[in-house]
Amino acid sequence: MVSAPPSQKKRATGKPSAPSAKTTTNKRTSTPHERSSDGKVAAGSSKDSRKRKATETDSESGSEAEEAEPEYSTAKIPILREIERYIPKSDFKKWPHPTEKQQEDLRGILKAAEAAALMTFRREGARKEAHRAITAVSNKLLGSLHKTHLPPMGKDFTLNCNDLIHKTGELEAILEPTLRYNAELEKELEREKARLTQDEKDLAVLQNNAKAQHSIRVEKSRKLPRALRTEPQGPKYSSADSIGLSVSSDLLDASTYKLSHDKSMRELTAQLAAHIHQMENNTNALGDIPESIQRSRGVIEEVLERGLPKLYHKVMVDL
Predict the structure, then answer these.
(1) Where do the coiled-coil regions begin and end (predicted)?
(2) 10 domain-assigned
(3) Is residue 218 part of a domain?
(4) What gap in Å lies between CA 307 and CA 175, rounded to an integer?
(5) In the chain, how many domains are there?
(6) Beta bridge pairs of residue 41
(7) Lowest mean pLDDT among 9-13, 200-204, 232-236, 276-280
(8) What share of the chain in percent tops pLDDT 90?
(9) Does 186 map to a domain?
């Protein structure tokens, strides 16, 4: 284990350094009870005493600040990510025990893990305590290596820590485009959620405003005179003659009526036919939209389910 420099050891312990010889002399000469040869109190004793107290207070506050430093550092150390898999106990018992070469590789991995773990401790005391705990755990693991079951591995597969880290880096490089795309999808999803939240807030404001305006209208209608509150009664028409509408005799007989001879309806009929034709074209154009939406939804579901199953469950089920 690499020991820290003397300066770091002082800072790690958090104890103030011992006073120098000059400080000791000042303590002796600044005693308020010591008198000079003529029996008077020394003039600089009170000032030296205040200076000594201020120095001791500063050293104590500095030691407390050093002790408050974080015990762990955030050094970026390559760490192999663990993957949990459920394996039947019957299959686990069939796995072979590690060979001598594999046991040696596992010992190397444990030693590398010890060094990486100790690098995260900054204080000397915490590092020593962690070294004792890690050594005890490592010895226990090393003692039971010959009883451990390992999954079947190929001949070219090694348990070297550097090889495993290199292999992990290669796999992460392969997965990097997919992970980047998934991160972009997550960002887009967060933006859509933010927009949805804002829309819900705006809708709530509009609903509150509508209720307030309705209450205001009801209150104003109550203050109106009774004559103004009643609905206006318009004239009632029972037939075409009551409104003064004259109908041609040709229109009364449906058998003799021909639309092509009716000049007043010919132009209107042409306009209606044009509108109907345009509506049919719009309907045909919109007919492909539901199919496109279903295809897009299927692609998004496939990407989410393949890349992020938890995100797929959250988007498709929770929302």
Answers:
(1) 182-209
(2) yes
(3) no
(4) 10
(5) 3
(6) 35
(7) 9-13
(8) 11
(9) no
At 203, list the tokens: 């809708």
Asked if residue 12 and residue 48 are part of one domain, the reply reads: yes
Report the amino acid identity of residue 266.
R
Q: What share of the chain is helix, strand, coil (3-state, %, to 5)?
A: 70, 0, 30
Q: What is the pLDDT of residues 123-163, one digit of tens each?
A: 888 888 888 888 888 888 888 877 888 877 766 667 776 77
31: which residues sit within 8 A by CB, 6+ positions away?
45
pLDDT band, residue 51 (cuts 50/70/90): very low
Bridge partners, residue 33, by sequence: none
Residue span of the structural domain in which 301 resides: 276-319
Residues 55 and 113 in one domain: no
Say what the pLDDT of residue 297 is. 78
Three-state secondary-structure class, residue 35: strand
Q: Which two tokens stand for residue 157?
A: 């597969």
> Do 57 and 101 fall into the same domain?
no
Specify the pLDDT at position 28: 41
